[in-house]
Design a protein that fits this description.
Largest sheet: 9 strands, mixed
Structural class: alpha+beta
Bound molecules: pyridoxal-5'-phosphate
Order of helices and strands: EEHEEEHHEEHEHEEEEHEHEEEHE
Number of strands: 17
Helix content: 25-40%
Strand content: 25-35%
Number of helices: 8
């Protein structure tokens, strides 16, 4: 994974501060107890001019909801945050970007009980290419079922994009990479397929796509976009639990997420999926997705928040 390239400014509690000055104390609560939540959003340069943030409102709504789920309310309104994202992109002159809003319990008390003080909030932007690699995006990635189960909704709640939840993802991802795979697939505590360390999963059989229902997974905005896109393209989409052997025997499979976009899966647990490369349905969904996010397709225009500088 390439090193993080600094950009000029990070939005920090309402002010744009130089990248290197956006720092916190080592006794910040979130660093010790995982009391934070975040978003991952992408902005794309539009061939018709300017740039657009994909589904900004939906991301910032989920951000505010993460705070609600965790009982750690966001001190900024959704509208303030949407504006702050655009301000951060334009201040940094970013035509394409990965955008990372984060709210966290800051410095001031070390008990488990979070202090009453408002959370700190930052928005950083940087350039991030294909998260699972350019080759993975084109040819498909190799995946291993994790020995770690996806969090049970009564341990940590999967609908919050919480920092603490990501310990589960890190355990799974490190295990998979150390075993020589690109990504981990986690099962839920009942043994059904859940999701990857930071992506939702779809399987394809004939003209039917299937994805995990919203039980143990994060409610992915890419997942939702693909459900709508695929239905509009004439595919049948089912939200249903499925098992790993159903995945093994699928014609095609792919991951989706803001970071991973639409990444084909070519192998799971050393079983070749379909023909062992990106399948035709996956390719058609991937193409449609990339046409929607940069405004090449006029449909779904209400998913784009345009900006220019
Ligand atoms: C962020 C995330 C996803 C993908 O969600 P998008 O809204 O599509 O970016 C999937 N799973 C997990 C665990 C995530 O944190």
């Amino acid at each position: 994974m390439p090193a993080l390239e600094p950009t000029p400014f990070i939005w920090f509690n309402g002010k744009l501060v130089p990248w290197n000055e956006a720092q916190v104390h080592v006794l910040s609560h979130a660093l010790h107890y995982g009391t934070s939540y975040f978003e991952g959003i992408r902005a794309y340069r539009c061939p018709t001019g300017g740039s657009a943030v994909f589904r900004l409102k939906d991301h910032m709504r989920r951000f505010v909801n993460s705070g609600k789920i965790l009982g750690l309310p966001c001190p900024w309104s959704q509208a303030d945050l949407e504006k702050a994202v655009i301000d951060t992109l334009t201040a940094n002159k970013m035509e394409t970007a990965y955008i990372r809003p984060l709210a966290f319990v800051g410095y001031g008390s070390m008990g488990v009980l979070p202090p009453e003080a408002p959370l700190d909030v930052i928005i950083a932007v940087w350039s991030w290419g294909a998260y699972l690699g350019a080759e993975g995006m084109d040819k498909g990635v190799r995946v291993k079922t994790s020995s770690f189960s996806r969090i049970h909704p009564n341990t940590l709640m999967s609908k919050a994009k919480a920092g603490g939840n990501y310990v589960n993802s890190v355990l799974a991802k490190v295990e998979a990479v150390k075993c020589g795979y690109d990504e981990a697939l986690m099962l839920d505590v009942q043994g059904f397929v859940s999701e990857a360390s930071g992506e939702n999963i779809f399987i394809v059989r004939g003209n039917t796509l299937k994805t995990t229902p919203l039980t143990s997974v994060l409610e992915g905005i890419s997942r939702d976009s693909i459900i709508k896109l695929a239905r509009d393209m004439g595919y049948t989409v089912e939200e249903q639990l499925f098992t790993r052997d159903e995945l093994y025997c699928a014609d095609e499979a792919f991951f989706c997420g803001t970071a991973a976009e639409v990444t084909p899966i070519r192998e799971v647990d050393n079983r070749i999926i379909g023909e062992g490369h990106a399948g035709s349905v996956t390719k058609s969904i991937q193409r449609a997705f990339f046409q929607v996010v940069d405004g090449s397709s006029a449909k779904y225009a209400d998913w784009l928040a345009h900006y220019s500088f």
